[in-house]
What does this fold into?
Amino acid sequence: MKKNRQYTGANWNVPEDEFTQSFYEQNLSQFWRPEDIAMQADLNVWHILPKNVQDAYAENLQVLTFLDTYQGDIGMPVVSRSMPEDMHQAKSVLNFMAAMENAVHAKSYSNIFMTYMSNEQIDELFVWGEKNEYLQKILDIIVGHYRHLDKMTYQRNYNMQNVNFSQLEFEIAQYKAMVASVFLESWLFYSGFYYPLWFYGQGKLMQAGEIINLILRDESIHGLYVGRLATLLYENFDRELQEEMKKFTLDLLEELYEQELLLIEQIYDKVDLSHDVKIFVRYNANKALMNLGFDNFFDYEEVNPVVLNGLNTETKTMDNFSMKGNGYQKMKSEALADDDFYFEKPAINR
Ligand code: MN3
Ligand code: MN3
It folds into this structure.
């Protein structure tokens, strides 16, 4: 039989680049399962919360559910597929991340819903998400970049005769999808994270807060990793194209920010926190830009200390492993520290 394709195996003996194997280690060492966190302890607090508070809390988790769903189903797999065929290590890290998004993160939000709410309330909540103009618009923008890249990937792989774009054009689409991915991971999640952290920082709804912290720890390395891949592409672009991509990035930021503000007001006005959440969101938009190698866009503002308090420090993270009660001893991973989320240095050295 005539061989028409050269297959290659994943050879972990030879690192593909300077960072992928570190991200591999970090990702696997912080693996967890939704069922590791028992939710029942939150119920006595949940049931005495006023309806407007419950609504805002549930709506936030619904936003997070939708983002994680698409990041798992489309975002990560598309970026993975777009990588050169022999970059098996990068693909494995991206595929692992993809599996976390839906199978662990989205599933965890559902576990919270199943604990706190009735079936009828859960059904209504999903309809709320499906009908939410701003959430749908945000997904449309992000997923649009994923779909565009995916079409080109398929054309490149399966329809060779009709490829009417250059390698550079492909890399531009790839870069744009990675920027969208970093914005989702390192920025857009944070309006939703705010409220669970705000409770957790005050010692309330602690089990849900533990879940949010585990998810946040994952998202932070996802954003860093895809940011590194994006930066590699960017460094190979010429000056002019770099300027163009920087403009694309800032335009995308503004386009998403406009929808974010509307979504935040819709969810948080009823609990008087919109102003505060917007600060947190601008703060994290700067973090996302940093992951892509760009300067801050928004001026520095002080984030609510209660929310910062809600972020697990290393000690608290270790506590929460023992809190799970089913002896997750293999998790000896080094927890990310506060400054991995909030200051200049990425968690994994460049
Ligand atoms: Mn996720
Ligand atoms: Mn993620």
